[in-house]
Amino acid sequence: MPAVQKLRVRFAKRGRLRFTSHRDFQRAFERALRRADVPMAWSQGFTPHPKVSYAGAAPTGAASEAEYLELAVTRVCDPEQVRAALDAALPPGLDVVQVVEAGPGALADRLQASSWAIELPGAVPEQAAAAVTEFLAAASVPVERLTKNRVRQLDPRAAVLRLTADTAADPVTLRTVVRHQSPTVRPDEVLAGLRLVAGFTPPQPPRAVRLAQGEWDDDTGELADPLADAPERHDT
Amino acid sequence: MPVESLFDQLEPLLARVSKPIQYVGGELGATVKDWDAAEVRWALMYPDAYEVGLPNQGVQILYELLNEQDGVLAERTYAVWPDLERLMREHGIAQFTVDAHRPVGAFDLLGVSFATELGYTNLLTALDLAGIPLLSADRGDDHPIVLAGGHAAFNPEPVADFLDAAVLGDGEEIVLAVTEVVREWKAEGSPGGRDELLLRLAAGGGVYVPRFYDVTYRPDGAIAAVVPNRPGVPETVRKHTVMDLDQWPYPRKPLVPLAETVHERYSVEIFRGCTRGCRFCQAGMITRPVRERSVETVGAMVAEGVRNSGFAEVGLLSLSSADHSEIGEIAKGLADRYEGTNTSLSLPSTRVDAFNVTLADELSRNGRRSGLTFAPEGGTERMRRVINKMVSEDDLIRTVSTAYGSGWRQVKLYFMCGLPTETDDDVLAIADLAKRVIEAGRQASGRGDIRCTVSIGGFVPKPHTPFQWAGQADHEVVDARLRKLREKVKSDRRFGKAIGLRYHEGKPSMVEGLLSRGDRRVGRVIKAVWDDGGRFDGWGEHFSYDRWTACAEAALAGEPVDLAWYTTRERDRDEVLPWDHLDSGLDRDWLWDDWQDAVDEVELDDCRWTPCFDCGVCPSMGTEIQTGPTGRTLLPLTPV
After folding, report:
1. Who's near A87: CB < 8 A, 6+ residues apart?
2. What residue in B sits closest to A31 (Cα-Cα)?
3. A91–B312 C-beta distance less than 8 A
4. Which of B119, B272, B444, B490 is at 20 to 30 A from B3, Cα to Cα?
């Protein structure tokens, strides 16, 4: 059956389920679609798959309040009903926050940057703040990412639109906005940058959470909500 | 005593290990109950990695059943990989359950399900990480009762020193009975401590407590006798048989993991037991008699299980699924129900029989036809008579022709190597058979691109089977035969690409043989291997044959027995076998006669459609065959 509607979904990865990898999430989500009886459109071919497009996923181990995907359905659905049904069908910790009918343009085009909070348990606030200052003062900060087959060079400095150390928070927390590029810079790589420029190493594993994704507004210093201009729905 | 979650301590380590999701729990279908409100607390372990252990039916059934009981709590624990084990030791974190991350040492009972003997070293890791003394004799009143079940528990002697108790057979009823004994004993204020609790468990005759049996040996190394050393402890311990599967429709709320696991499907047992009588098959021997689940219950369980889980695949499990007397109705009913929903149905174990192809056609009518699997097990008709796998070569050719003719592109054939009386010719004949299969398939399908994959496993003689007396083939013999087979398959270019050959080297089978038919002295070998770092013996990358042989030599030094004595040696009729005091219901004389029939190449029919051949199970266990047809049908689902 042909797709008649596209829905955009914002979901969160919370608590212990932040250790869910993207592949794990995909399997869980496809099962949730079945349990929730969402009238999915399916791809053709030898192994049909429900039509879901996933936007760039937060790394395994990072929590997120702002993950996005888009799905195609064969019957016009009430987005709020889909949200509630999917949320009930996913385990607690994978939480469906918002579902809207797709607005114009591609979803990926609206997800140009991410805002992160990176908690640094056990870190000394002054050291974190000093490292941030040095990082921001650098023209570029070349770090490496090891993938299975090769080493990639990244420059987290070029990707970072904003970075502050919230020394009043307990534990001390980095707040950063990172522009998406290929490959997208992860919180770990921002930390690798701090280590490189200032020798700053958190004493315990940091805890990162993605707070928002959206289009970066240079003037306001805010990320625009990618689901903000969903079309008005008129129930038939 | 308050019991705290270990998760806060564990969490910082998870970023440093592979696949951390396997340690966090929180699966759909998982249950966390109030610790303090529970009177009896079970930790259930599958002693392998989460990805293998989570789908295990036995653990899922008992987990759900126990958690349904008032005042009873059950949580799950699995073997942790060496990367996390190292970190847990470094940070002093105990073996934990994945449900509420409670320390395993705080539970009343640790139930361990041994589907295979290769999980024994993983049990020791879990005990040690839990702070539970490895030896039952060293445990005190505050330690959990360590109780084993599963097929390997039909000879728990190699791990007897590490276990407090073992149960044989179906777990549903005995797990509740054990729970009641523990509940009463605790309610009375735990009189007499651990010893009294174990005595109460043993006195019923349904729980084996190794410490209440003394084993003595003869100078030649064989067992002289196994004798109870306490009044009130029975001489033999009986297996358990659930007689009405419809009364036990579990799992109802299947566990749906976030991590990827080996089986991603909703599985329902359509029957238990098998009387085909394949002489190598321990599962078929120890699970008799056949007890079918009714069409309606299967239909209802599948409906609820799929709805609760969202799985896209349904597995209809049993030891030989096409043998259900109403399998046609089940297959057609489910295929009708799930038509157009992208839900696939599978029959994992099928016999060589054209009817199976019809069934498979039905089950796959909306999906793809990729591969069908059959298990002739032996390469020649002579070999198949020895193992009582009653399949003629013509049957097989007819069956695969039907399969290729109805659109299946690939047929997988399972065989064993190292069977009793086997010669090189029996194994080389597999090549001829595979070639005939391809020829027949090319003719039936009119295509050149069909394939046949031949998978070969090494045979390991198992307790409670007619082959329990047989000498296991040495791994060098098995490896040499498989090399010759490979050469023969490769030598004929017409089939080079059409026939795939898969086998593993024979060494791990020797260790499996040692652990399968070992006695209590083998416990020392297991301990030595574990001390030396042995873990995850079912995994090629962790298994070390050299470690096992070196440890066996050291641990058995001074004994009249060694690795070969336990494995390649044929036993005589009078030898006391380590599991003779554990009653699977099979009559020992019948097993011996069946072993002699095997050597004489005499086949035995199935008691479902021929008269009883007196294997002994039904009269001694008070059971009977339960098969249909009932004439009932799969109830249609009411649309919600």
Report:
1. A95, A96
2. B310
3. no
4. B119
